[in-house]
Every structure is written in structure tokens, then in C-alpha cells.
Amino acid sequence: MKADPAVQRGLLDLAEADAELTRIDHRRRTAPELAEITDAERAVKARRDARVAVQTQLDDLDREVARQEKEIDAVRAREDRDRKLLDSGAGARQVADLEHELASLVKRKASLEDDLLELMERREAVEADSAHAAVELDKAEAALADVKRRHEENLADLDTQQSRREAERADLVKRFPEPLLALYERKRKSKGIGAALLRARRCGACRLELDRRVMSTIKDTAPDEVVECEECGAILVRTPESGL
């Protein structure tokens, strides 16, 4: 295939635009924020799980406190009933029974109230844990929101760079005859790099130094003939830097 040497040199600009688009895509796929987001999401999940666990403890304690208070109320009601019966002038035997039961109720109420006090103290401690868990969850969610914001800003910047490069590329491709552009695109899709500078006997695509035989063949090739690297297949663009 033949193409004006100046047109062939223009392939280097196209290759640079494509290389930059590849770098932009790589930065988008490997952005450090992606790993940070994963870690931050794990942290949020862990904090949420911790808060749920503490809230479950609180709910259990609240049910236990309610049950304990209900039982204390029942004992108090029974105590009040017995005292009223005593005050009503019950018989001697009934008085003895009532006094015995009242003594048992007083002990029972004291025991229940002690248990309730212990429950309330436990609940106070767990409530403090719940407040701490809420604060830690807020911090984790704020950290996640921050890294997502930074990632979105970086993506917006990459989108701007990509749009600019794509516009430049669209202008560049208009300069090349269809056969040369088609060859370049085939090389780029199969090899990753469509064209590269031959500099000091070294291919700019695969970075390999060409042997004397190949260099001699290229030197004898007409300037308008399109040359390809025997190693990687990329179009070799010849300039005074090629060492021919």
C-alpha cells in the first residue's frame, strides 16, 4: 500500500490520540477511588450491622424492662389488695395468712425492683453503645459519600478529556485515505497500536530493535510505501529519526 509520507507521519498524531483514549479508559477502570469505595461500603455495612446488633439488644432489654415493670405492678396490686383486706378487719387466721403473704410480696417486690434496676443500668450502657454506633455509622457514611463525590469528579474530568480527544480524533481521521485508515484500524484493533515511529532502528510500538537485514529492506523501500513492523505488525512511520 502506498501513501504520501506526510500523510503517514500524520498517523503518529492519530496513534497518540488513540493512546490517550486508551489511557483515559484505563484510568476510569482502575481509579483508586474504586477500591476506596469498596472499602468504604464494607465499613458502612459493618457499622450498620453493629448498630442493628446494639438496637436488637436495646429492644430485648426494653421488652424485659416492660415485663419486669408489669410483674412489679402485679405484685404491688396484690400487696394493696391484701393491705385493704387487713384494714377491713379480717379474722385472725386470715390475718396471719395475709401477713405471711404480704411479707412474701414485699420480698418479691424488692427482688424484682433490684432486677429492674440492674436491667436499667444495662440498658443505659447499651444505649451509650447505640449512640456510639450511630456516630460511627454517620462517619462511615460520610466517608463513603466523600469518596463517591471524588470519584464522580474524577470521572467528569475524564469524560471531558475523552470528549476532547474524541473530537480531535474525528478531525484527524478525515486526513487519511480510506485504505490507509482501514489498515491502521485493523492493526490497532488486533495489536493495540496501529502505527508507531521508527526511531533509531527501534519500533515505537513493540520497542524491539530491528536487525540490520530488516533495516536494509526498509531503507530500500520507497518513501511512499507503507511499512509494517515484522515483530508486532504496527505501521512503521519513517522520519529522519529512524536511523535509515
UniProtKB/TrEMBL annotation:
Q: Which UniProt keywords apply?
A: Coiled coil
Coiled coil, from the record: 51-157
Residue ranges of domain C4-type zinc ribbon in the record: 202-236
Instruction: List, alphabetically, the Pfam families matched.
Output: CT398_CC, Zn_ribbon_9
Ranges for the CT398-like coiled coil hairpin domain?
Answer: 14-192
What is the protein name stated in its UniProt record? Zinc ribbon domain-containing protein
Q: Which species?
A: Actinokineospora soli
